[in-house]
Amino acid sequence: MLLIRYGAVLAAMALTCSAQLPEYYKTVNRVTWVVGHIDKVRPAWQALGLTDIQEFVNIELTGQYKGKPISIRAWQITGRLGNLTIDMLQPGEGQANAYTNFLSKHGDGILSIVHEVPDRSALDQEIARMKAKGVDVLQQVRTGPVTFTYFDTEPEGKFALGLILREGKKADPPPQQPAFVSHFGAVIWDAKAVSAYWEKLGFPAFPMAHATPRPDSRYKGEPLSLAFEVGFQRHTQFRMEWISPPANPPNVYADFLNRRKREGIQHIGVEIGDLAKATAEHEKLGYHVHQAGAWGDVGKSGSGHYAYMDTNSVGGVSLELVRRFQ
Asked: What digits encode the pLDDT tens for the residues 26-35?
């Protein structure tokens, strides 16, 4: 049994439930990305920049899902999108687990942002800390010396907070590749409630700011007059961008909310040097600009512009190309 009784640890944690957030949350180790057809998604994202791919066919993960024993068969690849490690996983059909539940409800997408704990004691302490705050373990599975723990934070936090433990191996430093990925972008309806939830768990709140409509914004090539709310968390090497859009006019954020029937991680933001060149290169791969916009006086220091490519057609996640002017 991977999940043990944490009574003793809970007792100790009761005295320190307001302790500082563990240091390992300052670094994202990887994301868990669940897909229904890895054979289609892999080549698409390989063309988009996924490298150093390792393939694990018919792996077995054993553990517990919602407190019940499970054995999962899956097809997994692990690769890097610049400085971001990605575990892309296709679970076998006919199994009840966090992966198949996510797929059946939402389709392809990022289930979890995962952080690495240094040892078993740290993992046990964090499970106890989260339990004291009312958050249970959704799923905990093991393959070889590696244990994945996913907390049941998605209903209120909009993604599953994950931990990885690799026993007998020190935690990896962040990948040293160029800083290709800059942020994750999540879309939500009620930003105040989501921010309060993460703050309750010890993470930074994200006060929202109002983004006003701009004449240079476009949605599927047509002018877009869109006001929305946006906030940020900056506690890891990747910013977390939270966006709360209106239902109308049509926009890429509301499209995700309506299509996926959930709030959650809608895009990965990547930094590029020339937006026109980058969008042209993606269009050659068969993708198009879904929505585009800017901030500041474009071209001057502190400004920038961006384009969301419709890569969500393969994998459920949009790629946001961002050009910043320093």
From this structure: 999 999 999 9
